[in-house]
Fold this sequence. Notes:
Elements: H1 2-10, H2 15-32, H3 40-47, H4 51-57, H5 61-79, H6 88-105, H7 107-115, H8 122-144, H9 157-180, H10 185-200
Helix pairs in contact: 2-3, 2-5, 2-7, 5-7, 5-8, 6-10, 8-9, 9-10
Amino acid sequence: MAANEGERARRRLSTEERREQLLSVGARLFSESPYDDVWIERVAEIAGVSRGLLYHYFPNKRDFFAAVVERESERMLRMTAPVPGVPVREQLAAGLDTYLTYVETHAHGFRAFHRADAAGDQAVRRVYQRALAAQERQILAALAADPEFGPGFEEAAPARLAVRGWLAFTTAVCLEWLREGTPDRDEVRELCARALLGVIS
């Protein structure tokens, strides 16, 4: 990975490519270490850029970590967007497969995203909480659009609490899955699917 990053740093990157490179390095470092232990100078060193250039993109570490969290949130929401008109029960397995693909493919980003809740910086934690709320709203909107559950479902306090709890459960399962490599992917998908169907029923 370091060789690839060095090769990318030697050629001229577009503004968007450079920003993406820095966020990828940040996701890896934040996934491996607590927020307070990540040094912005280390990010610049790995990316092969000056500290001044990094600060051109991100004014401080808080803004940098917040950008990492926001990028992962947007990616998760985009990859797990519900399919309009398809019952939730029918698309649940496929949606979870997509989500687990994201978890595997972007493991550093997934871990970094969920480390944000433990960050001592309250501004970073607020970014994380907004991201979780967006996931919650997306799931509730999909359930409300399904005739089985019906309009207004997302307004019900028990439904919101159930979905929030399911997100916490799924996060814990996926983090453990990444750490231990077990159970296998199909079992993880079935476990999470049964859990959601159980809480919303």
